[in-house]
Amino acid sequence: MTENVVEPQPEAAEVAQLKFADLGLSPAVLDAVTSVGYETPSPIQAECIPHILNGDDVLGIAQTGTGKTAAFALPALCKLDAKINSPQVLVLTPTRELAIQVAEAFTTYAEKLKGFHVLPIYGGQDFRTQLRSLKRGVHVVVGTPGRVMDHMRRETLDLSNLKMVILDEADEMLRMGFIDDVEWIMESVAKNTQIALFSATMPAQILKVTKNYLKNPKEVRIKPKTASHSNITQQYWIVNNNQKLDVLTRILELIQFEGMIIFVKTRQSTGELADKLSARGYAAAALNGDMNQSHREQCIESLKSGRLDIIIATDVAARGIDVERVTYVINYDLPYDVESYVHRVGRTGRAGRKGNAILFASPRERRLLKTIERETKQTILPYEAPSNEEVTQLRVAGFKEKMTDALGSQDLDFFNKLAADFAAEHEMEVSEVAGALAYLAQQEAPLQVTGRSMPGNNNADDRGGDRGGRDRDRGERGGRERGGRDRDRGERSERGPRTERDPGVKMQAYRIEVGREHGATPRDIVGAIANEANLSSKFIGNIKLMPNFSVVELPADMPAEVQQQLKQTRIRNQPLDLKVDPRGGEGVGAREERGGRRDGGAGRPRRDGGASRARGGEGHRGQRDGASRGPKRD
C-alpha cells in the first residue's frame, strides 16, 4: 500500500520529553494549546502533526481516545488562510455527535485565531441554518457524509479553496454503511487535496480507499488500546432477556457509582428502560437518535453536572461522550461487534480513573462473549452475584436511613398520634403498628428477598458450550435459522445477532409520492428518510417502487413531528407527502409473502414464502440490506 511507513513511535520516556513547541505549530495555535493546559503530545500527535504540516498525506491507525482529533486539528489550523472566507478543511465523521465534538475541538484550538469559523453539518439539523452559516463563510466544515453530499449536490458547499480532507473513524463509517458516500465525496475533490485518514482497524474497503485516494501517505500506527483498559474491571453475567431488569435492579442496589451509562440496542429500549429505572427512584434518562440535538446536549451536560446519574443510550447516540464521573458501564444488551464493545467500555475509566464494566449475555450469546475476550485479549470475569441475604440487608439499611431522615426532618406529631390511637383502639403494641406500616411502605419494593437468588448463571465451565441452551433458544424463536448467511444478516438487523425482535417495534406500510418514473431508487429513499427523520436504516423495512409512488415499511409508532417532517422531505425534487398506505394489510411486506414483487418492482420472489414473517420480521432483511449497500445519508 505504501512504503513510507513511519517507524514505531518513540518509547514513553522519549515522547514525554517532546513538547508541543517542538512540533512546528504556529504561535497562535501553540498559545491556544498552552491555554488549554496541554503539555506533551500523545504518540499519535507527535507523529502526525509534523507530517501534516509538511503537506504529506497521512494514514493514522489508532483507536478512539488516543488524541487523534488534536493530531489533525492543530496542524490543519496552522495551514489556514484567514483571508479566504470559504471552506479550506473538510472533516468527515460517522455521527453527528462526533461531528459536534470535533467542531468544538477546532473552536478550542483556534481560540487565538481572529475571525475563525467552523461549522458542523449533519442530518436532522435545519438545512436553512446550515445554508446561512455557509453563506456567511466558514474555514472548516465538519460533517457526516450524507449531509455533506446534500450540500455538494445542491452546490451550497464551495470546495474550490479546499486544502485538506480528513476522514475520522473511517472504519466506523464503513460499519455504518457510509463508505460509498465517502468515496463519492473523495471523487469530487481536487486531486491535489491533502488527505488524512484515521481508522482503528484496516478492513479491505478502507485499504482500497487509502490506495485510491491517498498519495504516497505516511503511515502512523499506534498500538491498539483494545488490549488495555487495564484500569477498567470487566465482568459478565449470563441471564435471559426477560430477567435483565431484575438483575440490573439488584446490581444498582449493591454497587456504589457516580455516573453510569447503560447500553441497549434500540432507541425504543432507551426510553422504556429509563422509565422503569426512574420509577424505581433513579435519576435516569434516555439518549437516542430520536431526540433533537439540544436535548441530547442537555442530557450529557446533566450527567456531567450530577443532575442525572444514569443515561440509557444506543451505540451511535453515545459516541463521543466523555464524562469523567462515569464509573460504570452496563452492557444491558450485548453489542453487535467487538469494536462496539471496546467503545462502550471506553466510556468509563476516563482521565486515568478506575472504571467498571458489566456485560449481560443470554445463554446463546456465550460464543460472542468468548470472541470479545479473544479479540480484546482481556479476561472478562464472572460477576459475583449477591445472595438474597446481602440484598435484604442493603434494602433494610436503605429503609432505615430513610426513616432516620424522616425522624430528623419531618413533623411527625400527627402520624405518631395516628399510630398510638390505632394501637389503643386495637389493644396492640405500637411496635406491631409500626411493623404493619413498614410492610405497607415497602410493598412496591419488598425489603426481604426470598426464593431464588439473582436470576442467571455464571458457570465458567459452561461458557464455551451450553448446546442445550442454544437449542432451547432456537425453539423459542420458532425453529432453527436457515443458515450462516441469514445469521450474518441478523447481526446487521435491528434485532442483532440471533436475538428476538422486540415485539414493541411494529412496522407499518407508508405510501410516499415518489417512484421509478421520478428516477428514485431504494438508496435514495433510505438515505432521505434516515437523514431527515434521524432514523437508523435498520428501522427502514421493505421498499416497493411503483411508477409514480412507493411503499416503505417504517416503525408504526413514529412521532407525529417526524411524520410531518417526512411529508415535506423531497427526493428527486418530489415531496414525499408520507401517509399510511390505505391498503393496510396489502402493504409491501404482505405482498412479498405471497410470492414476491409481481408488479415490476425490483427484487426477486422470496423462496420461503411467508415463513420469514412468522419468525418475527426476518422478511424485512433482504431489501433493507440491499438498500444499505449504496450511499446512505446520516
Summarize the structure.
DEAD-box RNA helicase involved in various cellular processes at low temperature, including ribosome biogenesis, mRNA degradation and translation initiation. Keywords: ATP-binding, Cytoplasm, Helicase, Hydrolase, Nucleotide-binding, RNA-binding, Stress response. The chain has 4 domains: 12-221, P-loop containing nucleotide triphosphate hydrolases (Rossmann fold); 232-382, Rossmann fold (3-Layer(aba) Sandwich), CATH 3.40.50.300; 388-441, no CATH class; 484-628, Alpha-Beta Plaits, CATH 3.30.70.330.
What does it look like?
This protein is α/β, with parallel strands linked by helices and about 625 residues long. The chain folds into four domains: about 10-220, P-loop containing nucleotide triphosphate hydrolases (Rossmann fold, 3-Layer(aba) Sandwich); about 230-380, 3-Layer(aba) Sandwich (Rossmann fold), CATH 3.40.50.300; about 390-440, no CATH class; about 485-630, RRM (RNA recognition motif) domain (Alpha-Beta Plaits), CATH 3.30.70.330. Helix content is about 40%, strand content about 15%. Strands 3-4-2-5-6-1-7 form a seven-stranded parallel β-sheet, with helices on both faces. Strands 10-11-9-12-13-8-14 form a seven-stranded parallel β-sheet, sandwiched between helices. The longest helix has 22 residues, at about 390-410. Residues about 1-15, about 460-505 and about 590-634 have low confidence and may be disordered. GO terms for molecular function: ATP binding; ATP hydrolysis activity; RNA helicase activity; RNA strand annealing activity. Its EC number is 3.6.4.13. Belongs to the DEAD box helicase family. DeaD/CsdA subfamily.
